[in-house]
Amino acid sequence: MKILLMSMPDVAPVIMHESAFHMPNLGIASIGANIDDGHEVYVVDLIRKRWGLRKHLERILTAIRPDLVGLSAMTWQYATCAKIMRLVKQLLPETRIAIGGYHATLMSEEIAESEDAPHIDYMVRGEGEEVFRRLVNALDGKDRLADIPSLSFKKENGFVHNPKGELLDLSRLKLPIRDQRRLTWGYHIMNRNVEVMETSRGCTRNCNFCSIRHMYGRSFRPFPLERILADIDDIYYKRKVRWIFVSDDNLVLDPERVIRLCDAIIARNYRNLFFVVQADCVTMSRNEKMVARMARAGFKSIFLGMENASKKNLAAANKGDILDASKKAVEICHRYGIMIVGGMIFGFPDDGEEEIVENYKFLKSTGADTAYCQILTPYPKTGIRQQLLDQGLVTNPDDYTRYNGMWANVKTRRLSSDELQFLFWYHNQAVMGWWNPSERIRSQGRLWTSIWLYAFKPLLKVIIAREQKRLGWRGRFQREIQARAAVNRFADLDDL
């Protein structure tokens, strides 16, 4: 059987331009690797084919003529996924389509009743490796669709949703596909080649704006140390890549495990191998020994979820008071040369302009090297969504294309959606100012930071000063919003 797995081309350029970060989709790479032998499997990351998307899709579909196409999409990518499904069915009517990822997991029943349902044959809910493996076997006559947990399949013009399955034994998973079966290449963070891996799945935190529990429950499962090291070896020796993004939801939930992992990495004496991860402020602030070991092992950049400067908003998000922990975590990481990306969320129910300013000022006061700022988003099936709906604060309940953190889909009791969107943008300019890369950032990329400091930044200052004089703040804002709206519009798919 020929199987083609694809991830979506949509991006969320929250930190930098959409071309700055193109990373492989670990989910489809892992699912493809765990299909039983005897099948032809191909993996395509459409993030590397954002230009000329339809032409590429038509070429690859007609060349491979897959029996089964698997599509992975997050909520804000699903509209593009639906168009690709229609294209597949136009070109290859007999090809079966399976969808998976966060949106299919969260919204399987709604999708089954939607206008997209005729184009979908199967939905994989939750962890996909075992469900998809067994689906392929069932289509090959070696299993039964009705016996596969967490699978939804079409029957008599409707969908049957099998009961949810157990969480996987991670020790049994094979390494992700990174060989010639992956038909796209050129993955990068700025000018550095990058690969993606994971060392654990799940998170035990109770943040009510997050949907991770629908994938893994409120659990934390680490991969065996030997398997993690084999994954690193595959990236380092076989792929010759030196930067690894670790996709764990929260790497540091078990500090002793992190220390053991770091010791093992240090003992293997990799040269110029660096890791980018995400972690919580509280654990990082309380475990300096762990942070020091992470620095020695090559952990160069950490995303910290600081979330908000208001204790009331933190409580509303089920985060607790993490203000002091945020500052201390940044201080400790900087002590060991680790770059920090500070994550902040704006637009909680009681926010006004002063709260937005306070949020940015707090972020600046932590000394974080750069920021990942988003507007509170009512993701499907999250606790915060229902609360906001009950309070009448969700202004866009249905257009999921804007559910990527960059758009105001809510209002507050004091600000309309439009006001929230503008003030979020304006005070980023007014409070945060022009970005000056720290020495930590410069040490990780002296070429591109020098280009920014001595070429792009001076030029942009001149251009923006002229725009400011001609358009004013509101005019500049409208221009940026229009440009942002076009980022994930693929005109060659508009007729689908």
TrEMBL record:
Q: Which residues form the signal peptide?
A: none
Domain of life of the organism encoding this protein = Bacteria
UniProtKB keywords: 4Fe-4S, Iron, Iron-sulfur, Metal-binding, Methyltransferase, S-adenosyl-L-methionine, Transferase
Residue ranges of every copy of the B12-binding domain listed in the record: 11-146
Cellular component per GO? cytosol
Question: SMART domains annotated for this entry?
Answer: Elp3
Record InterPro entries: BchE-like (IPR051198), Cobalamin-bd (IPR006158), Cobalamin-bd_sf (IPR036724), Elp3/MiaA/NifB-like_rSAM (IPR006638), Methylthiotransferase_CS (IPR020612), Methyltransferase_Class_B (IPR034466), rSAM (IPR007197), rSAM_horseshoe (IPR023404)
Q: Please list the residue ranges annotated as the Radical SAM core domain.
A: 189-413
Gene3D superfamilies recorded: Cobalamin-binding domain (3.40.50.280), tm_1862 like domain (3.80.30.20)
What protein name applies here?
Magnesium-protoporphyrin IX monomethyl ester cyclase
